[in-house]
Structure formats: structure tokens, C-alpha cells
Amino acid sequence: MTNSTQVANFDSPMGKPLPAYEDTIKATSGNPNDMLFLNITQNEVVYQHYIIIHGQVLEAKGKDDKIVVHHPKLPSLEYPAIDGYFKAVVELASGINELTFEYKQGATVISQSMLTINRGTFTDKPPLKLAILLAKDSPETFDAPPEAQGPGLNDLEAAVNKMRCCAYLWQAYMAEMMYRNGLA
Asked: How far apart are alpha carbons 32 and 13 in whole angstroms?
């Protein structure tokens, strides 16, 4: 098990190079089980609530591997990894986030790495406001299957929570696309 953090230049699993990763640092470590973060660097400052992190463990070749992300303030998350490549959507708390990534083959951890990300905040810009419009005679519910109906499931509060989560994921996706196209 290794504990190093690298950033690498790589080709995507589809065979085409990903343009955003062309300027990243080539891996210099000789250990094939080092974990490489492909779209973020150590101590990077980001401004979104969620972030999509791409990574790779060079010598991992399993189809049933997984990446586990541990956050000191939030629950651990687990994502599939294929042939050493992984993507993880990670929630960030305000300030410094010290994340631990474990690459597992079965129950065995073959690579572990720490990544520190600083989630900054814009104090001079107001947050984006999203609105949900309701008709005057609305029951303040939305359509849902019978087993998903009731308070907290298909009411106005649930709609607001779903909209908020969707906005955070849009923001993470847009940040990733901007990064890949050289705009961030």
C-alpha cells in the first residue's frame, strides 16, 4: 500500500487524450500502485459544494474494484473503479477538506492517498437564487409513485431539497467541463 499523491498526463479509457490533462505533471514515481489525481492538485482552491475527481492507479486491472473516499466531517462514499480508473463525486465542507482515497480490490487496499482541497467562498457575491413557482390552488406536491408519497417525499420541502442537490451537481459538472476545455 502506498501513500503518495501524483498528478499525471494520461489517455482516456476510450483511447483519446483528454485535453485538460495535457499540461499536468507526468508521474515520476516508480511505484505502479501510486494513486494519480488527474484533474486536481494538492491544496487546490475550488468554489463548488461538490467536485468530480478523476484518478488512476496504474497497475490496477480489476473490473470489480472500488474507490472509497473518506471525509473527516461527512460519511464515506464508495464508487466503482474499472482497470485502475475512477471518478468520484465528493461533497466538500467550507474550508480545508482532507480527503483520504482508498483503492480496493476486493477487501484489500492496494493504494491509499490523501488529497487536501480548500473550498473557498465568495463573500462579495450573492448566492444564486432558484425559484419554484406554485399555482394558487396547488396542493404543494409533485407526482410520485404511491410508495414515494407523503410528507418529506413529494411535498414542497422535498422539491426544494431535490432542486438544491440538482444545482450542486450542475455546478460540479460545469466546473469539470470548463476544466476539460481549458477554461478553469
From this structure: 18
CB 11: neighbour CB atoms within 10 A? 10
Instruction: Tell me the per-residue pLDDT of 30-87, one tens digit each, with 9 for 90 and over.
Output: 566 789 999 999 999 999 999 999 999 988 888 889 999 999 999 999 999 998 899 9
What's the Cα-to-Cα distance from 169 to each of 39, 115, 127, 140, 176, rounded to whole Å? Answer: 17, 21, 16, 24, 11
Contact partners, residue 73, CB within 8 Å, separation at least 6: 93
If one counts every other C-beta atom within 10 angstroms of the C-beta of residue 161, the result is 11
> What is the architecture of the domain spanning 5-123?
Sandwich (2.60)
Task: List the chain domain ranges.
Answer: 5-123, 126-184
Q: pTM, whole model, 2 decimals?
A: 0.74
Closest CA to 71 of 119, 27, 109, 24: 119
Residues 85-94: tens digit of each pLDDT = 999 999 999 9
CB of 67 within 8 A of CB of 102? yes
> Residue 103's CB: how many other CB atoms inside 10 A?
26
Cβ atoms within 10 Å of 44's Cβ, excluding its own: 13
